[in-house]
Design a protein that fits this description.
Pfam families: Mannitol_dh, Mannitol_dh_C. The chain is α/β, with parallel strands linked by helices. About 50% of the residues lie in helices and about 10% in strands. The strands form three sheets. A five-stranded parallel beta sheet has the order 5-2-1-6-7, with helices on both faces. Strands 4-3-9 form a three-stranded mixed beta sheet, with helices on both faces. α8 crosses α9, α12 packs parallel to α15 and α21 crosses α23. The structure holds D-mannonic acid (CS2).
């Protein structure tokens, strides 16, 4: 069977939506570099840019991975083209054409650097996950991070995204080329501000004048990104092959819901993202908070508790009425009261829609995938609500159940000899090795992991008591509920 590529694209025309701009004689030039070409990017930003390219402009994307060769090996033979399956009551398929090349920084450093320093590159977007920013618990660049130190020591090739972007910005500064606009599309609170501060703080280590220039000129909007994107599986590959009658090495699937809110500070020269459905807002932080607290916090709670109960996917866990009722109580009693929602958002309805999205039978979203990198996700999605509630004297007991479930999840992985996917895995596994199962013994050990829990929390006696109570309560719930669910266990 032939491959999806520039030369076979025309054969799909009329069968499903294809990027007409890729069939035109004059194709768009690259104007965007994207770091982190994972599934989320391909289902989200690359999709929006694909739609925007239909309105013209040189906004094709050069997608860069820091080390992994997977995406490049899969998509370069097909000229960056891939199929996007949108899973709803019926699945619809379309070909995305915005990604024009895929580079691997560790192997093609000069080519990546050339893209980043070209004046035609006006945007750098990124999905490098929480850990890619190398921030400390205070949200600042961690100057003691071994890879940041390695980059700061002046090696010719940066190994971190922050080091890479900062050195490209330094080269632009030297060459008198304006900085590119950087857009973080990761689930971090205040993502744009944190990225901007991280880059400036990195630059300040070597060159105060560069830091000053960035302070004046670097544009780094905050964003809120949303679309549930489960990992590609064989069923998707089979369906896509049947649909397009061509081989696609790496199709992507996502739910129909998709949202991208960008702080309205972009340079006027920009892709037609607005026509493609992007929302520009003066203040994105309220949207970010709403999404992190109402979608990602329940997602993580579902992932850890659901995993402990033996469920495999979000959909499976959502069939458990008792579990869902607990999470719903956490949302209504402790999450909704914890923040001020954007004026235009009806939070009750927004939250109900999110729960309905979790119940989508067409989405097979593995709990284990959401459970990854807990040490990076918990500080963004759970701890801020706990801090806000403690300050205001509101209850935190249900939010603490998510922390307890995370601790018990880590212990379960360790006892089953399963790999823990987390940049702090070593530290967390060392904690589990000392655990006895007794809340007053185990919980202080976990809370002492200061890369996750800042002193203001770990030293707070109300917080400590609430997490210990939750640890006890979740252990009992899991033991009893698993048995009643499945007597064979
Ligand atoms: C999930 C998110 O994997 C996870 O941690 O909570 O990826 C979630 O699916 C997206 O943020 C939805 O926009």
């Amino acid at each position: 069977m032939e491959h999806l590529s520039n030369s076979t694209l025309a054969s799909l025309n009329g069968k499903l939506p294809v990027p007409a701009y890729r069939l035109a004689e004059v194709k768009p030039q690259i104007g965007i570099v994207h770091l982190g070409p994972g599934a989320f990017f391909r289902g989200h930003q690359a999709f929006y840019t694909d739609q925007a390219l239909q309105y013209g402009g040189d906004w094709a994307i050069s997608a860069v991975s820091m080390r992994s060769a997977d995406v490049s090996q899969a998509l370069m033979p097909q000229d960056g083209l891939y199929t996007l399956a949108v899973l709803d009551s019926q699945t619809s398929y379309q070909i995305i054409g915005s990604v024009q090349e895929i580079l691997i920084a560790s192997e093609q450093y000069a080519a990546v650097f050339a893209r980043l320093t070209a004046s035609s590159t006006r945007y750098v977007t990124m999905t490098i996950t929480e850990k890619g920013y190398c921030l400390n618990a205070a949200g600042e660049l961690d100057l003691n991070h071994p890879q940041i130190q390695q980059d700061l020591s002046g090696n010719s090739q940066a190994v971190t995204a922050i080091g890479l972007l900062a050195s490209a910005l330094a080269a632009r500064y030297q060459a008198n080329v304006a900085p590119f606009c950087v857009i973080s599309c990761d689930n971090l609170t205040d993502n744009g501000h944190k990225l901007r501060r991280a880059l400036i703080s990195y630059a300040a280590q070597n060159d105060p004048a560069l830091a000053n220039w960035l302070e004046q000129q670097l544009i780094s909007p905050c964003t809120m990104v949303d679309s549930i994107t489960p990992a590609t599986d064989d069923a998707l590959r089979t369906n896509v092959t049947a649909e397009i009658d061509l081989t696609d090495n790496w199709p992507i699937k996502r739910e129909a819901f998709v949202q991208w809110v960008i702080e309205d500070i972009l340079p006027s020269e920009r892709p037609a993202w607005q026509q493609a459905g992007v929302i520009y807002a003066a203040d994105v932080s309220a949207f970010e908070k709403a999404k992190l607290r109402l979608l990602n916090a329940p997602h993580s709670t579902l992932a850890y508790t659901g995993y402990l109960l033996g469920y495999e996917t979000v959909f499976d866990a959502m069939q458990d009425e008792q579990l869902v009722a607990q999470i719903q109580q956490m949302v209504s009693a402790e999450i909704i009261p914890s923040f001020i929602a954007p004026a235009e958002l009806d939070v009750q309805q927004y939250s109900a829609e999110i729960f309905a999205r979790f119940r989508n039978p067409a989405i097979r979203h593995l709990l284990a995938q959401i459970a990854w990198d807990g040490s990076q996700k918990i500080p963004m999605r759970i701890l801020p609500a706990i801090k806000d509630n403690l300050t205001a004297g509101r209850s935190i007991e249900r939010l603490c159940s998510c922390l307890a479930a995370w601790f018990l999840f880590i212990r379960r992985r360790a006892s089953e000899g399963e790999k823990l996917i987390d940049p702090l895995a070593e530290t967390l596994l060392a904690v589990t090795a000392q655990c006895t199962g007794k809340a007053s013994h185990d919980v202080p050990l976990f809370l002492a992991v200061d890369a996750v829990f800042p002193a203001e929390l770990s030293l707070n006696s109300e917080f400590l008591a609430a997490v210990m109570a939750a640890y006890q309560h979740v252990s009992v719930f899991v033991a009893q509920h698993t048995i009643s669910q499945n007597p064979a266990k």
